[in-house]
Amino acid sequence: MSDKIHVLYIDDEDNNLKSFRASLRKDFKIFTAIDAEEGLRIAKEEEIHVVIADQRMPGLTGTEFFEQMIKINPDPIRILLTGYSDIASVIDAINKGEVYRFIDKPWNIEQIKNSIKNAADIFFMRRELKEKTIKLQKLHSEMNQFVYSLSHELRGPLMSISGISKLAKLEISDPNALEYFEMIDTATGKLDDFIYKMLDFYRSTKIDHKITEIHFQEIVNQQMEAYREKFDLTHFKVDVQVNQQIPFFCDEAKIRVILNNLFSNAVQFQKEHGGQKWISLTIDVVEENAIIAVEDNGIGIEERYRAEVFNLFARATQKNVGTGLGLYMVKEAVEQMGGKIDLESEVNEGTTITVTLPSLNKGEF
């Protein structure tokens, strides 16, 4: 392709075509057509950046030509030449022909040059944006495949190590050896938890919404079963209440991300001593909103950290648990669904996090 801007000019007067070519051929690569039919053929076969058409032509008008051209090649930027004032034609050109600008006849050479250059700038910016969008879509698709493939490949060996460790502990009576296996179990558990966090991170920040009807009681039952397998809740009093009498529509995967991270934090950031540990999970569906509240009597969050805990990799404690991702993922999921999140906390008293989510329609996202 040449470096010159490619310009197609359609006019039913041959003298105008010759004058246009002679005046602008040094600056641009010029294509000319004596009627709309020839112009459509050139627009279909050649790479064209800017199209200029006279409005008053036999057969198709300039506006009608542009309307037809959009169907076969919508990319070139369109300029209409008008030799008279006709507001109806101008409106038609804007609405049907998607015209970039108008130039009065007889045209001025410098005006034409500037208009072509400005129109070409728009053409090339749009093309660059389109190419980048395609690359981003490809990257997004590849990242989806990569994340899920990576998680699968990592978790397989982890589960094997964990299973072998559990079997070995049943057969070994040496307390020192048992301690080593406990260390292996702890390490594999942390890595497995991190992989889950990475998957949740991707679901909450990178994957588009999938809106379905939400049955909170079913989701909570499933999640609580998973939590009891994952965490030792024997020393916790867990109170769960779900109040839903009306349909609610949202992204189920992101709701699970929210529940997973809020509940996980409530378990992990507990006081080591100090009596009965408890966690309360309440979900109320009222009108067009779902209100999810998770409350605990854990270590709490100091006031100086409360504004930062929703930031990526932020931690509000020196306690060696967590990845610094949990509340960030909650915030991202909530904000993407148009909801809001509130935090109340007192040191050594506990924390309450309340999430309010609107019911969504498929057409909203």
From TrEMBL:
<dbReference type="Pfam" id="PF00512">
    <property type="entry name" value="HisKA"/>
</dbReference>
<keyword id="KW-0597">Phosphoprotein</keyword>
<protein>
    <recommendedName>
        <fullName>histidine kinase</fullName>
        <ecNumber>2.7.13.3</ecNumber>
    </recommendedName>
</protein>
<dbReference type="GO" id="GO:0000155">
    <property type="term" value="F:phosphorelay sensor kinase activity"/>
</dbReference>
<dbReference type="InterPro" id="IPR011006">
    <property type="entry name" value="CheY-like_superfamily"/>
</dbReference>
<feature type="modified residue" description="4-aspartylphosphate">
    <location>
        <position position="54"/>
    </location>
</feature>
<dbReference type="Pfam" id="PF00072">
    <property type="entry name" value="Response_reg"/>
</dbReference>
<dbReference type="InterPro" id="IPR005467">
    <property type="entry name" value="His_kinase_dom"/>
</dbReference>
<feature type="domain" description="Response regulatory">
    <location>
        <begin position="6"/>
        <end position="120"/>
    </location>
</feature>
<feature type="domain" description="Histidine kinase">
    <location>
        <begin position="149"/>
        <end position="361"/>
    </location>
</feature>
<dbReference type="InterPro" id="IPR004358">
    <property type="entry name" value="Sig_transdc_His_kin-like_C"/>
</dbReference>
<dbReference type="InterPro" id="IPR003661">
    <property type="entry name" value="HisK_dim/P_dom"/>
</dbReference>
<dbReference type="InterPro" id="IPR001789">
    <property type="entry name" value="Sig_transdc_resp-reg_receiver"/>
</dbReference>
<dbReference type="InterPro" id="IPR036097">
    <property type="entry name" value="HisK_dim/P_sf"/>
</dbReference>
<dbReference type="InterPro" id="IPR003594">
    <property type="entry name" value="HATPase_dom"/>
</dbReference>
<dbReference type="Pfam" id="PF02518">
    <property type="entry name" value="HATPase_c"/>
</dbReference>
<keyword id="KW-0808">Transferase</keyword>
<dbReference type="InterPro" id="IPR036890">
    <property type="entry name" value="HATPase_C_sf"/>
</dbReference>
<keyword id="KW-0418">Kinase</keyword>
